[in-house]
Amino acid sequence: MPHPLSSLLLALLLSLAGPAAQAAPSLVLLVRHAEKASTPGHDPGLSAAGEARAQALAAALAEARVGAILTSPLRRTRDTAAPTAAANGLKPQVVGFEGGTAAHVAAVAAAVRAQDAATVLVVGHGNTVPAILAALGGPVLPDFCESSYGHLLVLSLDASPPRLLRARYGAADPAPASGCQ
């Protein structure tokens, strides 16, 4: 059974997204990758909790008319996006880290602006999602806590300045440490 706020969030998403075909995105959905596996190495996949969260993201966005998906090259972002991509018949666009984090953030923001889909999903990292949000004209937020995975940032680019709705999806995260979100 869907969470009662899911229907409200869905209605808001759909009302902000506008027509299905337009010249530039009007709505950007930003999430951090789901919980990663505690396997050694630089590029782990998702844990069982992360796989469940990725499915929860697809369910939360089932009616959002996601038309494009952007991820980093790391497996955990691609795995988080996979259920939503499959549900929408999309192939995520991978934006690399060439030039470092600042260059990645700028490249993602440029890639978002270049999309012709009304609604774009961006799956990033605890330090890149807030930076991408700011690069798109949204408010400046602190990096996400290491244990925070359920943030869903909904940025409406139709307003000036862009409007932000902060929501959550999937299982509850543990209480954040002091000073982080």
UniProtKB/TrEMBL annotation:
<dbReference type="GO" id="GO:0016791">
    <property type="term" value="F:phosphatase activity"/>
</dbReference>
<dbReference type="InterPro" id="IPR029033">
    <property type="entry name" value="His_PPase_superfam"/>
</dbReference>
<dbReference type="GO" id="GO:0005737">
    <property type="term" value="C:cytoplasm"/>
</dbReference>
<dbReference type="InterPro" id="IPR050275">
    <property type="entry name" value="PGM_Phosphatase"/>
</dbReference>
<feature type="signal peptide">
    <location>
        <begin position="1"/>
        <end position="23"/>
    </location>
</feature>
<keyword id="KW-0732">Signal</keyword>
<dbReference type="Pfam" id="PF00300">
    <property type="entry name" value="His_Phos_1"/>
</dbReference>
<protein>
    <submittedName>
        <fullName>Histidine phosphatase family protein</fullName>
    </submittedName>
</protein>
<dbReference type="InterPro" id="IPR013078">
    <property type="entry name" value="His_Pase_superF_clade-1"/>
</dbReference>
